[in-house]
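Note to self: keep these together.
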Amino acid sequence: MRVYLLLMLVAAAVTFLTTPFARWVALKTSAISAVRARDVHQVPTPRLGGLAMLIGIVVAVLLASQMPFLEGVFSARQAPQVWGIVGGAAIVCALGWADDKWDLDWITKLAGQVLAAGFMALQGVQLITMPIAGVTITSSRMSLAVTVLVIVIAMNAVNFVDGLDGLAAGIVAIGGTAFFLYTYGLTQQSTPDNYASLASLMLAVMVGVCVGFLPHNFHPAHIFMGDAGSMLIGLVMAGAAITVTGNIPPGIMTGAKALPAFIPLLLPVAVLMLPLLDMGLAVIRRLAAGKSPMAPDRMHLHHRMLALGHSHRRAVVILYVWTAVFAFSAAALVQWDWEVVLIWTTVFVVLALLATLGPLRHRGRFLDDDVAALSGQTPKVPAGVGVAAVSGIEAAVPVQRVAAQSAPRPSAAHPSASPKTKETIE
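Structure:
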């Protein structure tokens, strides 16, 4: 455990120290998040935090490769899997960088995601066996297809939920911690004489980079992780989940405790509950409206939290709580009876629900700020937002906030007095 904690600390420190460099690179390369109608932030913000996260992963993995405790993880059999995950992370980081700069269309992004997932699969990170009843995917093509699908779903799930300052990094850090405890517990049971595990290594490193990035990203954020970061941590989480399968002997868990053995198969629902739920609802909602599944809107879970009346930070913290409830409940099944876990999970679900719905008693409508969007009208953003010069981002913040607070509200009798607007929705 101490080795994993050390690597987690190293990854966090490197990410924290290199994030200002990533921010500088984002400003120099114009990887800036302009203010769109569906966004929550009020000023353009650099969004290349994924570069610092990638550096943190690379440094931590290189250090791990020199540790005797993890010698088995870097053996001739498993080393290609380690570098396959790192290489896939580098590919999606470059893809995200390009998207942050040029705003790629969804087909190009999907092609890049499939390329990164395929690279990982070719290095041996594939779903082949399930640790339940020894079920094996006999077809190599089917194994490759299922692996790519799981990885792409994971990347997009994290990307969908990355809508508030600190939300994606915090959710993945919490879920990753629970998943790390899960894999570490299973490793203790399956190989009592050797606790080295590729999944535990990658999860510890991933949690570290998320924790190291959070101080720069928590509200008000100085930098966003961007697609370069959200796809990166989604891919690493998927890679860790996939490497668990086939490494746990069938029958190691029996009875009700066999339930958490399903977790590695689809990136445990408990660990990525909110991102997967948000993505699923978004796809269904958009298809039902006759739109592309990738069409942007303001109906994500974090938008709904703000519409309920929560502040930015409180909405993020409550979503953290929901993630912790489901993730740690699943991890607890490794150590405790399911009856005990169910009782405590119910208690915490009720408390989380009360915290979530608390502001409803002060609200009349559930989604007041989405009335215009649902009626087909284009939401409007104050003039000047999203068009600040790259070199003047920091200077624009106080000016825009003062203007927003002091500007007189236009009278209904004088529509011409309304401020000029700029449509920024894609």
